[in-house]
Amino acid sequence: MNSFIFNFKKQYKKVVFELLGLVLLLFLFDRLLFLLIQQRESSFYKPSSPYSLNDKFAKIKNKVDYQILIFGTSRTYDGIHPRYIHNQLGARAFKEAFVGKGPMYNYYFYQEYKKQMSIPRVVIYGVDYFMYNITTERRWMQRFNMEVIDTLYYNRGFSMLLANKGKIDNFFDAILNNFQKNLGHAESSQIEQNNVLMENYLGVASSGDVVTQEPPQFDKVFFFKYPGREGVYFSRLMEELHRDKVTVLLISLPDYIGTYWTNKFHRQYLRAFRYYQRKYNNVHFLNYNHIKKFAINNPEYFINGGYGKTNSHLSFAGAEILNRIFLKDLRKYLPENEIQKPK
Amino acid sequence: MLFNSIDFWKFFAVIFAVYFFVPQKFKWFFLLLASYFFYGSWKKEYLLLLALPTLVTYFAARAMTAAQTPGRRRLLFWSGLTVSLGLLFVCKYLELFRQTLHDLTGYFVHLQPLSSLKIILPIGISFFTFRMVSYLIDVYYKRIPAERHLGIYALYVSFFPQLLAGPIDRAAHLIPQLKAAVYFDWERITSGARLIVWGLFKKIVIADRLLWFVTQVFRHPEKQDLYLVFAAYFYAFQIYCDFSGYSDMAIGVSRMLGFESMKNFDFPYFSKSITEFWGRWHISLSSWLRDYLFLPLAYATMRRIKGEKLLAVKVETWGYFAGILLTMLLGGLWHGASWTFVIWGALYGIYQIVAYASKRLRKKIVKKIGLQRLPWLHSALSVFITFNLVSFAWIFFRAASFRNALTYIGQIKFRLPEDGSVHFYYNLLLLLFFLIIENFYKHRDHIMFWQRFPRPVKMAAFAFFCCLLLLLAMDNSNEFIYFQF
Question: Are B264 and B199 in contact (CB under 8 A)?
Answer without folding.
Answer: no
